[in-house]
Predict the structure.
Amino acid sequence: MPDIAFLLPAYLLLGLPFSCFLLLWLGGKSLNKFAGWIGVLTTAAGLVVSLLYADAGAVHTLRFEWLTIGSHVVELSFRFDTLSAMMLAIVHFVALLVQLYSIAYMHDDRNVNRYFAFIQLFLFSMLGIVLSGSLLVMYIFWELVGLSSYLLIGFWYTKKRPVWAAQKAFVLNRIGDAAFLTGILMLFYYIGSTDFEVLSLEAGTISPGILTAIGICLFGGCVGKSAQFPLSGWLPDAMEGPTPVSALIHAATMVAAGIFLLARISFLLTVDARLVILVIGAITMVTGAVKALKGWDIKKVLAYSTMSQLGLMVMAVGFGSWQTALFHLATHAFFKAGLFLSAGSVIHAVTPGNELPGFEPDYDPQDMRTMGGLRKALPITFICYLICAAALAGLPFFSGFLSKDAIITEGFLWAAEFGTLGYLFPVLVIVSAGLTAFYMTRQVWLVFFGEKRFPAIVHPHESPVAMWLPMALLSALSLFFWFSINPFNAEGWFLHWIGKEHGEQLVWVPFIATAVTFLSIFLAYRETGADNPFKVNDPIPVGEPVQSPWSWLRGYSNEQYFLIPFEVITKYLKAFEKNIVDALVDLVARGSLVFGHFIAWVDRMFVDGAVHLTVFSIRSAGRAARNMQSGRIQSYYIVTVMGVFLLILWLVAL
Amino acid sequence: MIDHILTFLIAIPLLGAAAIAFWPVDSQHNFRLIAAVALLLEVVVTVVSYLSFNSQDAALQLSEARDWITLPIGSLGVVSIDYALAVDGISFPLVLLAVVVLLVGVVSSWNVNHKPRAYFALYLLLSGSVMGCFLAQDFFLFYLFFEFMLLPMYFLIGLWGGPRREYAALKFFIYTFLGSLLILIVMIGLYLSVIDPVETARMVGLIGPDDAVHPDMIPQIQQWLFDGKIAPEQLIHTFRFTYLADQGNYIPGSILSAASEFFIGNIPVRLLAFWFLFIGFAVKLPVAPLHTWLPDAHVEAPTPISVVLAGILLKIGGYGFIRIVDGFFPAEALYSAIPLAILGMISIVYGGFNALGQSDLKKMIAYSSVSHMGFVLLGIAAFTPEGFNGAIYQMVSHGILSAMLFLLTGVLYDRTHDRRIDHYRGLITVMPKYTVITGIAFFASLGLPGFSGFVGELFTLMGAFQSDALPVWIPAISTLGIVLAAGYFLWTYQRMFFSSFWYKNATTQVLTDLTRRETLMLVPLVILTILIGILPGLLFDLSGPTIQAWLEGMK
């Protein structure tokens, strides 16, 4: 197909969600009844368009002139290729299911029109990222995604926590974005364009040191959006948003944008930059997994798990294999969305009565300590949850096994080239895979097995079909055969389709990985037989959890709105402004005043004094002169004589 | 009319002011009506001039010039001051901005009840002198308007302001006045050093008094000047911007000539003159650490005056940088690029941090202005096409956005006379429309793509990165400004507008949503920021050719 043929899908893919956003937002509450269906239909249309125009293997670029500065034309470009075709399909598909689910889940909310409007705004921006043909365009939509994430996390704006979570997410993302923007502007300086095609041709002209710096700056964007260390603190808090939003944005799509970015710029990443990426990814992966071990909030455990999995994908890029990163992105998108939707179904079931989704009962319906034994009441949810959890834990015959396996293989291959120390990284991946299996077993047990720990007022019931159907579809997609015919060989059609060449296989990797996974599951299972499994019967602490001394650095679930160092600087600069800068001005002003008084005194004493003196002397002279005219005849005589004398003198002198 | 269209732009508000001053009936409705009509007329005239402005043409357009004062002063030559007006790509975007903001300001002044006659007369006086500043093509005329602006401003803050208005007004006046003294000193130096080649040619008889000027004539007379062939009495000194900007018109051996041998201490006089001018305009922009008048003036000024102050008056500083400081001393500007950019960077970061620390909404916005105007300085310091165009764009964008922000603050202040951020919570439940528009203004100001703030910051930063005169770390640190902007705007938004409703003084009935008049003044600004945010070419096409020609002329 010629490039020009892609003008129509570009308009449709971006135009449909945006017009839908405007319609639903401006349409007001009168649209509440149909809002969900309008959204679903729009997204379904988008899905059809993106499948019709999927042209794998070819690259189509559309360029629009945006503005001219001097002789420099700044273009906005959009790109259709395999990568975007894959992302288009995933984003549309997950969004479609999530919206379908939301129709039931958000059924009672007063502002349902706004909810679906914001989802469409999110889709518009996310599709913009996917279709962007240059980093500038990507940045524009990147920020808009940040906005829609802000609006959706803070959807229940009358509650305090969602609102600050929203703001925290935006601000922490902004820190990463500042680095991202710096990288973009450096590319503008060194190459003069950020178009991917131009970059791929000219990246070689930049010296490696600068290219490394640029790569790390661009990675900053990924650190923010994909919740990598040290900007990861926003993701667990983002769970304050509605659960379907967590599934769509904070599990399947938006957080994956960072990985997508890395895949797009993989050719720019030097060896050194990749090493930085690898280390950051490893830290994120391990901290996320460890945090997930101890969490009690059903959604937060999943959020930490998302963080950990994103770290894994970032590590895959660090290993130099962006294809396996995207593979894991795809499998993760389905099973993690499935897990979130199922978790939403669980929360829905244990929330008492017909209250609004924003309602706050006197206990936390998301706390796993108040669940337990739900498998009988929620059979469909249970099965979906189990399948998706198995995929996440990396059990054989599930999609997660394939993609994780592929990354571990890449890790060992990379380490063989890098040297002994390099083996640390793939080993870490295996360890955290073990942790993943452990915490997922723990979660499944806490929610679905054991005693019923929820209050008596709760009568759990299975969710309606609009909710379980999306869950079921997503769990079906978590099975291996969608991605590779052979359940033990990751190199199926999918990896080849997104462009991975046939690589070396390590036969022992699947066995080691499976062994570790089963060992972890066994350890977790043994724990369930204990008196107080996972300390579930300990009393629930009241109030905010105790913060570790370093928590301020990451701000995990910290009430602090911003990174504390910034606050400290602000405090001191404000004091500086008040006590130094402004005080200096005041001092100058006061000094001038004092000086003015001094001058006035000088003026009075000396200048004016001189004037007085002059006046005085004139006056005395005048008085003297007046004395002369005293009327005394002698005086007149003397004056006359003197005058005559002087006159004569003058005449003689002549 | 088209020949004198720029004179109309200055005269209409001034005549309006006179009309208000002498209007017989003492009723505020007449005064505000006259002011509104005058500024509506102003808008019409601006639209006409926009239609006759050719954006492809880099030269001065719609020019009109008339000899104003001509005075022979013996061996010092002849004093010649012209009444010269014109616009080009540098000033025209700012003229458009000024007209919009002034009109919005009148709508926002609608309910001024205290001495309305004086208020509206002074407001129109201010409007006239602001327009004069942007249109003047003669340094003397510019300076006249520049200084004259202080007078109505002083009274508008000092009489209609808040509790500490006298302090603020005086601080504003003294700060700006000291700045303009430095400008005056340089202006005299420039005057002594520069001649009007055309008039001098007439004087020496190269061309007849009524002959047209041939373009080749000017290099010739400049060569004569260079060779010292013209007697001092025959030199006609000038204040015209175009002649001041051409180094060929500087008398050899004069104090500010390019090869000036004058030093004060170890500093060349030209460099000193550059810094004097810079400081003079830096007070207006404002550049940290010369900004402390701004928060005080804003906090005490009545809403419409804050709008005009932030929306237009600050831009005269940036305009002065481009037209006068860089225009007359380009070599010195390039030489000083790094310190200038560092000052810009400090303004961005320092203003941002201070905004984060404020508890008064208006003060927060005032400091955000310092931060955003820092981008203007950064772009100008870069000395690249992106930088200059970005700076002009950022000025227009900030003019629109700061006007919006101050109007929004005014809306709240009108209702409660309370601007403390921590006195409000959950305003969204009682003022939904207000919340949406504030959200748009905040997100636009923190540089969200799709709004104008993003483009301004992007291109000033891009200019700074492109610049060969600047090291990369300066713009890199400046990007911290966009992080801080997100911090202070969103934190304020969260604290004031979300969670459940609460107001310290608990008078909920006072907190009504936007009235029709308030919506009327805010919505056009929303439309403008989105319009130029999506189609920045509307502005870049205006400023681009002039900047390009100017930069090429310098080479």
